[in-house]
Amino acid sequence: MKREVDEIVRVSGLRYWYPGSEDPVLDGVDLNLNRGEMAVLIGPSGCGKSTLMLTLNGIVPKTVGGKIAGEVIVDGTDPLDHELAEMATRVGLVFQDPDSQLATLLVRDEVAFGLQNLRFSREEIEERTRWALELVGLDDLLMRDVFSLSGGQKQRLAIASVLAMRPPIMVLDEPTANLDPAGADEVLTVIGDLRGRLDLTVIIVEHDITLLAAQADRLLVMDEGKIQFSGTPRDVLRANGQTIRDELGLWIPQASEFALELEAAGRSIRPFPLSGNEVPILPVATAVSEVGAPSDPPPASQPQRADPAVLSDGVGFAYPDGTQALSEVSVEIDRGETVALLGRNGSGKSTLSYLLAGLRTPTTGNLEICGLSVTKSSARQLARHVGYVFQYPEHQFVAETVWDDLAYGPRRAGLDEAEVEKRVSDILAMFSLTGYERRHPLALSMGQKRRLSVAGTLITRPDVLILDEPTTGQDRKNALALLGLLGELRASLGLTLLIITHDMRLVARFCERTIVLDCGRIVFDGGPGALFTRIAEPGADDMGLRVPDQWKLARKLRSSGAQVRELADPEELGRLVAGAYR
Questions:
Q1: Which of 264, 448, 520, 543 qualifies as a FRET site for 193, CA 20 to 30 Å off?
Q2: What is the value of pTM for the model shown?
């Protein structure tokens, strides 16, 4: 009887086909969750994660259409037997992009909006609104304009709007994907606190469990429309981590990658580590030194050119309300460089990138892109040289099909239809989108949307490519494939890459230079290793960044005398240490 009382989600033999599709996206899902659990659901792009979550409140198939078979019972009810409005009080959804969920102008009104639509009394609306905002720590911002909030505050507001309807289940889609470390910590703290206070069941759809591994009760791994692995994060990663990383192509904690290599050599770390702090300093310095670990590679040499890709001299920008977003930004970026643009949310990264793309004009200073003055050139002239991939892919889709979306840029550039067709066909294959030509861009998975947004920008062959959070929504396999492809294009075409990101794995693995902004000014300009060393110093300002575990692991080994690369990948470190025991 206890299992029946505690069970809040039961999915049995669930199968689902999208309209017009012959193959099911869900193909026999079995899942049971207990009240108060936190489960993290991971899986390759397109495996059915988001679709599964949408069946819990009936959006699939009621709104989307298609065919469904099997059983879904949520909080004792079948979503197909109830209206969507009623199911919204049982299963709350928080989307990855909080802006897509905001419907009003004021914080108070945003939380009240759902309650008003459910026709609660004025007194109940006021009570629930204040209660929900207090729970997420926004009760002092009741009358604040929602668009003036930070990314972390917007995410907390979206959570409050759902909490106000007091659902026993909350589903969050990559809630920290686009937040800086402080914002991510603030959202995860709120989620953890809510579980304890409300006995809330939380399901988080993610591509990377690193930040959630220690907090989650259950790790669910999905592939080919089924739940393949289920258990505690430690147990699942220890038993199946190699398969999850190498065969399914998913991100796992870097400390776990390191430990798996040691496991293969018969050397165990217990408890199985989920973070770098759980990895002890291993007494292997002499043995590792004898392996002959490679030294740090020299920085990539860049040709010195008279016409750099980016030349900024004293650039400043102020918004019409007087807000100074950038001040005295001076920087030079050579053609062919790969540069990470880093900093806290609100530090000025997006504003600077908009100036570089010609979407805004500096209010002071001089800015040139490929020899063109941003102030004196038209947006059309600059667009021939600069491509911009937005943080949220949906913001740049312009057509009803993948094919037409890709063809839009070349057609606007005046290319003949034969050349347009060749470019579209080539780039579909290049980005693994062949077969999706007639699919609506918004019907793609998040990973596919990201690849389409990059492909649609590259198809016009710009000299400078700006990417805002390019690994968001990408599993490990597709993220590394995308980065590898960009690296090849950079080498063959001299493409200059400017990457806005909070993903320090990407920075350590792919970028040769980092530029950090804070309060609209450049506060650091140098290599990734130098950056991590600086922010890891006791008492140092972290500049809104988080040092990756791979750097911490390498530092631990180096401190014991081991000869390892400062920016070595965790699997490389693990193989190196494991070799000492073979």
A1: 543
A2: 0.86
For the chain, which domains are there?
A: 2-249 (3.40.50.300), 255-297+549-579 (no CATH), 310-536 (3.40.50.300)
Q: What are the backbone dihedrals phi and psi of residue 316, each rounded to the nearest 5 degrees, phi first?
A: -135, 155
pLDDT per residue as tens digits for the range 457-507:
999 999 999 999 888 778 898 889 889 889 988 888 889 999 999 999 999
Dist CA 553 CA 255 (whole Å) = 8
Q: Which residue has the tokens 């493409």?
A: 495
Separation CA 446–CA 437 (nearest Å): 16
Residues forming beta bridges with residue 517, ordered by sequence position = 522
Query: How many CB atoms within 10 Å of residue 293?
Result: 20
Q: How far is C-alpha 167 from the geometric centre of its chain's CA atoms?
A: 26
On whether the CB atoms of residues 473 and 174 are closer than 8 A, the answer is yes
Query: Which two three-digit tokens encode residue 534?
Result: 């600086």
**By the 8 A CB rule, do 237 and 244 touch?**
yes
C-alpha span between 468 and 349 (Å, rounded): 9
Q: Read off φ and ψ for residue 78, nearest 5 degrees.
A: -95, 120
Listed in sequence order, the DSSP H helices in 389-527 are 402-412, 417-430, 446-458, 476-493, 504-510
CA separation, residue 281 to residues 153, 529, 553, 560 (Å):
38, 20, 9, 7
Looking at residue 217, its amino acid is D
**Which phi-psi region, left, alpha or beta, contains residue 29 (left: φ > 0; alpha: ψ -120 to 50)?**
beta
With CA atoms as reference, report the closest residue to 39 among 208, 204, 223.
204
Q: Sheet holding 513-518: strands in order across?
A: 386-389, 464-468, 496-500, 338-342, 513-518, 521-526
Q: SS3 for 228?
A: strand
Q: Locate 401 and state its tokens.
A: 């099909």
N residues, the chain:
582
CA–CA separation, 164 vs 502, rounded Å?
Answer: 30
User: Mean pLDDT, 10 residues at a time, over the chain (582 residues)?
Assistant: 68 95 95 96 91 95 95 96 92 87 94 94 96 91 89 88 94 85 87 88 92 94 96 97 96 95 87 92 52 42 64 94 92 95 90 91 95 90 91 88 96 93 95 93 84 93 93 85 88 92 93 96 96 93 92 87 85 82 58
Task: Find, among 400, 407, 385, the residue nearest to 441 by Cα.
Answer: 400
Tokens 């839009």 found at: 408
Query: Omega into 271 within 30° of 0, i.e. cis?
Result: yes
The pLDDT tens digits of the residues spanning 96-142 come to: 788 888 899 999 999 999 999 999 999 999 999 999 999 898 999 99
Torsion, Cα of 535, 536, 538, 544 (10° steps): 40
259, 273 contact by CB (below 8 A): yes
CB atoms within 10 A of CB 336: 18
